[in-house]
Automatic annotation (TrEMBL):
InterPro entries: HEPPP_synth_su1. It comes from the Bacteria. This is Heptaprenyl diphosphate synthase component 1.
Amino acid sequence: MNSYRIPEIAKQYTEYDMIQNHTDLPDFPELRTRLLFAFLNGNSKFSSSSELYTLATSLVQLALDTHDLVTASNDVKEKKAARSRQLKVLAGDYFSSRFYNLLAQAGQIEMIKQLSNAICEVNRLKMNIYMKMKQLKLTAEDYIHLTVEIKSQLFLSFSDFMTEVYDQAWPDILRSYAKCEVIFEEIFRVESAANFRDSWGFWHILQHGTKEERKQLHADESDQTRLRTLIHKYNITSQLYQMLDSHTKQLQSKVQQLESDKLISELFHIGEPFLRFSAKQPKVLEEI
């Protein structure tokens, strides 16, 4: 059985001085990468390719996430910011090229096709959520669902591989982990007025708030006092904690139904950050 070392291998593609000195990369998709490796490595049919498949998928995901950080406007004139933007574009393109190169060298043409189709689906989902956001037709529930689907698509392309051994467990557990990951990230977005825009809390207040409160959401983002008042009124942080706790418990139940004790142990280890975070949830959440 292979040991998990994907982040270390990926560093040869991500740790370039030019990138590190002039721009920031998104976080490595650690949770979904570990999850995919655990399932593939536990399947004797694919264990020999588990490292290659997982590495290639993680690089594609990193490429997509890097391009997501590129600002929509190219109006930035300041040299440092302009260079950072350009390097994000180039870095994302480079990570994508490495995915093609790795799989092509291994003769994995069918896998290139599957992941390429998944990339198309990711972009379709992103356009869907973007249009709903632009038209202010996105609900908080839509936001969670679509974000989970966007995070899951590349990894869902392996569903056919998993069916023989894990039946329908792979897509269900993958989406459950992705949902916990999304909610986990949303809790931290509440802490910043700049990051709150288009978060779950933003869409929740837009959906349930008064006409005046909806106007306040679109007002100056620097007015943190006004924003904190809305966050407190609608219990945004406590709702997110409750959602994380609920979905973590559901996830535990799904994992325990798997037949492999080794896989169960690995999946609980992967989900440990969610469990620890839920356990530390304060009894009384003060939203300020």
